[in-house]
Amino acid sequence: MDDGGILQKAREMSGELKIKDGSLELSFYDPENHYLGTRFDRSGLFRSLRLRSGPGWSDNLTAPWFGEFRAEAHDCVCGPVDEFSAIGYDEAGPGGTFLKIGVGLLRRPEDPWPYDRFRLYEIADPGVRDTVRRPRKIEFYHILSGYYSYVKVIEISGKGEFELSHYIQNTGKERLRGEVYNHNFFTLGNDSVGPARMVMCNFPFEGEWRTKYPYAFQKGQGLHFSRPLVEGESVYMGNIRESGRKSGSPYEFYVDDEKGGYYVAILGDGDASNAVMWANHRIACIEPYVPFDIAPGETFSQVICYSLGRI
């Protein structure tokens, strides 16, 4: 199906950005009218995720974790959110354009500085977006003519489970190379990150702390906190990999909060090339990376399964 046909079908089936069954309720922001930063993919940004808990529903498990919302801030996003590598920044030269999948074609500034994911860039071409909503599934389309056709699909796949899938077709003349990672901004309720929160790798692992944190430590296959983190504190462990390897691991991770009583298990198809953990007073995130290398005419796909439940 050509680009025009995809978008026509999307327009015919578009609707409210919410999907629900008896166990999960997921709602999403409009990709064009909420987050306006140039770091993260704007498709599939979570407004809320609620899990059936007894006779009612849980609090929002992907609640805002930051302070005041600012549309153009680089990280005012919630839930499992993707970032793709910048493509072609160095080659573009000052004033030229480079690519961020899920955002569009961006303008490189005239200054000599290297790419900075925390910077806001001018969007030279935002592409065309649309959505398709079905009873248990929603599809977000982003088409940048001459570069790619991208579909993100989020589907409730079982009791307390949903899948997040990427399908990126290279419609240009140059290879698209880089990495995509998911930041997994789950709050798992309203409690602060502390001794009740744990991030676990489902394999023996190694990693490097950014600095010495007297209140964060590794124990067995988990990352723990000895006291609650306070606003303004953050913790980072990089190069998380399976023990005995220089890099890479199974894409199998788990985060829970014993006080709030909820968990999320994260399972990707294939291995992660790298992973990091980042935490502040509201969230403790695992961020697995997956490389992509898409030749013209070819398609890259990735599927991540999320399972949520009560501890």
Question: What's the SSE blueprint?
Answer:
Elements (H helix, E strand, L loop, with lengths): L2 H11 L4 E3 L3 E5 L17 E8 L2 E2 L24 E3 L1 E2 L1 H4 L4 E4 L3 E4 L14 E4 L2 E6 L3 E8 L3 E11 L2 E10 L5 E7 L14 E5 L3 E5 L6 E4 L2 E4 L9 E8 L6 E9 L4 E11 L1 E6 L4 E11 L4 E12 L1
Antiparallel strand pairs: 1-2, 2-3, 3-4, 5-14, 6-7, 7-8, 8-9, 10-11, 11-12, 12-13, 13-24, 14-23, 15-18, 15-20, 16-19, 17-18, 19-22, 20-21, 21-24, 22-23
Q: What is the count of β-strands? A: 24
Q: Strand-residue fraction? A: over 45%
Largest sheet: 10 strands, antiparallel
Termini distance?
44 Å
Structural class of the helices, strands and pairings? mainly beta
Low-confidence stretches: 4-15
Shape: globular
Rg is: 19 Å
Descriptive report:
It is a single chain. The chain is mainly β and 311 residues long. The chain is built from two helices and 24 strands. A ten-stranded antiparallel sheet has the order 10-11-12-13-24-21-20-15-18-17. It has a six-stranded antiparallel sheet with strand order 5-14-23-22-19-16, with no helix packed on it. A hairpin with a 4-residue loop joins strand 22 and strand 23. The longest helix has 11 residues, at 3-13.
